[in-house]
Write a structure and sequence with these properties.
single chain, mainly beta, 13-stranded mixed β-sheet, 33 strands, about 10% helix
Length: about 575
C-alpha cells in the first residue's frame, strides 16, 4: 500500500482511536497522526508541550558537550588525512601525573524512574535481544568485503573487520563512538539460545538541521519541509549478529508522564528547546549526550554520559513498535493505541499514536548513576579536564580478568586548557549493580583511581591526552589515543610506584592504530574458544578526510601484548 493511501485510510479511523483508551485491543492500522502536527496553540492531548510538564529530573547537566574534539584549541582541521591540523597551539603538558582520588569518582543512583518504566512496559509490546538479532535487517560487510584497509596503521595486523551499510558509513547525522559485546555481558559469551554473539555499537546524533524550539512555539521539525534529521534523537545502539552478519538499530529513550498524565518517552537529550534567537543550525536547543563508552553487563547496558555519569538501560525492556514487521500498517499496542514506524519526525505518544522517529525498536532508560562530587570551578565544554573534583565519563569498558570491574576515564585536550590530561578509575560491578537496583541515592564507590602518565610527546604535543577508550587486561592498561584525521595510537601503561606514589607508568613504545580510533572492548574468548580480541571502531565518515572510513575491527590480544614487548 502506498504511503498516501495509508494515511487517508488511517485518518478516516481517527475517531476509533479515542475509544480504545478503555484498554480494548485496536485493529491494525486503526489510527495515525495527521501528516502535519497541529499549531503550537492547539496541540493535541499527547503532543510535546513547552517545558515538558511531568518529566522527572533526568539528571542532565545542561552544558555543551563538545566531546570529543581533537581540534579544540588548535584551529580548523585540514581534513586531508595527512596529519595534525594547521594552526596548532600547544599547551604544556602537566609536569607530573595528577593525583588518583577514588572518592572523586563516586556515583549515586538518581531519580527513581522504575514506576515509569513499569507503566511503559505495560503500554508497549516487548522483544528480547535474541529475537531482535533474528530480525536484524541491515547487511554488514565482513573482512575482505570491506575493501581497502587504508585507515589502519602499520604496527598492528587487523584480525576482523566489519563495515557498515552505505548510509550508515557516510551519515553526517549518526556518528559511531562506543562498543561492547556479549563477552562483557556474560562469562560464557553465549546469549540465550542464539549463536549470534552480538557486538553492540552506540552512535550519537551529531547533526540536527533546523532544530525545533518548542519554548518559542516553533515546531518546524514536524513540517513537511523539515529534514527528518531535524530532531535531536540522542543515542542509538546497533546490535551486530556475527552469525548472520546483519545488524539492527535500537533507539535509546527515557520515560516520563506527559502533561495529560499519560506515559510517554523521549530521546536522550538535555532539553526540548531554549533558543533565544531564530532556529538555525547552531541553535543550542536539544543538547544530546555523546555516548563515548558503553558496557553491556548481564541485562544492563551502561552508557557514558560525559557531564553526569552513566545512563543505564535494561535489555529485557526492548520495546517493539512493529511486531508484525509490516511498516505499512500501524500495529495495535497493549494500551489500546497503535504504533507508527513510518513517521521519522515524531517520538513517544502523540495524538494517541506511538512513534520512535521511524525506528522499530526503542529501549528505555531504567536508572541514572550520577557523580556526587562537585565541579572544581572549571568548564569542560572545550574538552578541559581538572586534577580534582567531578570527573567526566568519556569512555568505559569492562575488565573480567579478575573480579569484574568497570573502567571509566576522561577525554581531555590539554591544548585547550585545564589542569589534567585525564584520570581513570575502576568500580566493582557488584557495587554498580547494587546502585542500579537500589533506592535513589544508593552509591557505588570507585576502588582505584589514577591520573594518566605525563611527559611523553607526540607530533609536538602531549602524548597522554585525547584518549578515546581504555581497557584493563591482566593488570596492564591499554588506551586508544586519537589524532584528528590521521592514524591514532594504542598506548600501554602499568601501575608502578614513583617517588613513593602509586601511579600509571606509560610504556615508551606506541603502536600506530586506525584513523579516528574510539572506544575499546575486549572479547576474552573463554566461552567460545577463540583467541582474545581487542575490538575498536573508527568514527570518521569519508566526508571528513580523503582517507577516512568507518569500520569496526579487532586485533589479536596476543599480538598487542607481544608488540608492546
Amino acid at each position: 500500500m502506498g504511503k498516501s493511501s495509508r494515511r487517508t485510510r488511517l485518518a478516516a479511523c481517527a475517531v476509533a482511536a479515542g475509544a480504545m483508551l478503555s484498554g480494548l485491543a485496536a485493529t491494525a492500522g486503526a489510527a495515525a497522526a495527521p501528516a502535519s502536527a497541529p499549531p503550537s496553540a492547539a496541540r493535541a492531548a499527547d503532543d510535546p508541550v513547552p517545558g515538558n510538564e511531568g518529566m522527572p529530573d533526568d539528571g542532565f547537566d545542561d552544558e555543551p558537550e563538545s566531546e570529543q574534539d581533537d581540534f579544540a584549541g588548535t584551529g580548523t582541521g585540514t581534513g586531508t588525512g595527512t596529519g595534525a591540523p594547521t594552526g596548532t597551539s600547544i599547551a604544556p603538558a602537566p609536569a607530573a601525573p595528577v593525583p588518583g582520588r577514588a572518592a572523586d569518582f563516586k556515583l549515586a543512583k538518581g531519580t527513581d524512574i522504575s514506576g515509569l518504566v513499569t507503566k511503559l512496559d505495560a503500554a508497549l509490546p516487548k522483544h528480547g535481544l535474541t529475537e531482535l538479532m533474528e530480525q536484524a535487517n541491515r547487511p554488514a560487510g565482513w573482512e575482505g568485503a570491506c575493501g581497502t584497509a587504508g585507515i589502519y596503521g602499520s604496527d598492528l595486523a587487523v584480525n576482523h573487520r566489519i563495515c557498515w551499510k552505505s548510509d550508515d558509513a557516510t551519515s553526517s547525522e549518526w556518528v559511531p563512538q562506543a562498543i561492547t559485546g556479549v563477552s562483557d555481558a556474560q562469562e560464557d559469551e553465549d546469549w540465550g539460545t542464539s549463536n549470534a554473539e552480538p557486538i553492540a555499537v552506540a552512535g550519537y546524533d551529531a547533526e540536527n538541521p533546523g532544530r525545533s524550539d518548542y519554548a518559542a512555539g516553533r515546531d518546524n521539525c514536524v513540517q513537511a519541509s523539515a529534514s527528518d534529521a531535524c530532531n535531536e534523537k540522542g543515542i542509538r545502539v546497533s546490535f551486530f549478529n556475527q552469525a548472520t552478519q546483519m545488524y539492527r538499530h535500537v533507539l535509546l529513550v527515557w520515560p516520563y508522564m506527559n502533561s495529560k498524565d499519560h506515559i510517554s518517552f523521549d530521546a536522550l537529550h538535555a532539553r526540548e528547546g531554549k533558543c533565544t534567537s531564530g532556529v538555525t543550525s547552531s541553535c543550542a536547543a536539544q543538547n544530546g549526550i555523546h555516548a563515548g563508552g558503553m558496557v553491556w553487563y548481564g541485562n544492563y547496558l551502561y552508557v557514558a554520559d560525559t557531564a553526569n555519569g552513566m545512563r543505564v538501560f535494561d535489555l529485557r525492556k526492548i520495546m517493539d513498535l512493529n511486531p508484525d514487521n509490516n511498516a505499512d500498517v500501524n500495529d495495535p499496542t497493549p494500551d489500546g493505541l497503535v504504533s507508527d514506524v513510518v513517521d521519522k519526525k515524531r517520538v513517544g505518544r502523540q495524538s494517541n499514536v506511538w512513534y520512535g522517529y521511524g525506528y522499530r525498536y526503542v529501549m528505555p532508560q531504567v536508572a541514572t548513576l550520577k557523580f556526587t562530587t562537585a565541579k572544581n570551578g572549571g568548564t569542560t565544554s572545550g574538552n578541559q579536564c581538572y586534577a580534582t573534583g567531578r570527573p567526566k565519563a568519556s569512555y568505559i569498558s569492562l575488565d573480567r580478568t579478575g573480579t569484574d570491574h568497570l573502567v571509566l576515564g576522561e577525554y581531555c585536550n590539554t591544548n585547550n586548557g585545564g589542569t589534567s590530561p585525564g584520570r581513570v578509575a575502576t568500580y566493582p560491578m557488584t557495587a554498580l549493580t547494587a546502585a542500579v537496583e537500589g533506592a535513589t541515592g544508593t552509591a557505588a564507590t570507585a576502588d582505584l583511581a589514577y591520573g594518566l602518565p605525563t611527559g611523553a610527546t607526540f607530533n609536538g604535543e602531549a602524548l597522554w591526552h585525547k584518549i578515546q577508550g581504555v581497557t584493563r587486561y591482566e593488570g596492564k592498561w591499554y588506551f586508544h589515543r586519537s589524532n584528528g584525521y590521521d592514524n591514532g595510537r594504542l598506548l600501554q601503561a602499568t601501575p608502578g610506584t614513583v617517588d613513593g606514589t602509586s601511579q600509571l607508568v606509560g610504556n615508551a613504545k606506541t603502536l600506530e592504530s586506525a584513523f579516528g580510533p574510539e572506544d575499546l572492548y575486549l572479547a576474552h574468548g573463554r566461552g567460545d574458544g577463540f583467541p582474545p580480541q581487542l575490538w575498536s571502531l573508527s568514527e570518521h565518515a569519508p566526508s571528513k578526510c580523503g582517507a577516512c572510513k568507518r569500520e569496526v575491527y579487532s586485533y589479536n590480544v596476543s599480538e598487542v601484548i607481544s608488540d608492546f614487548g
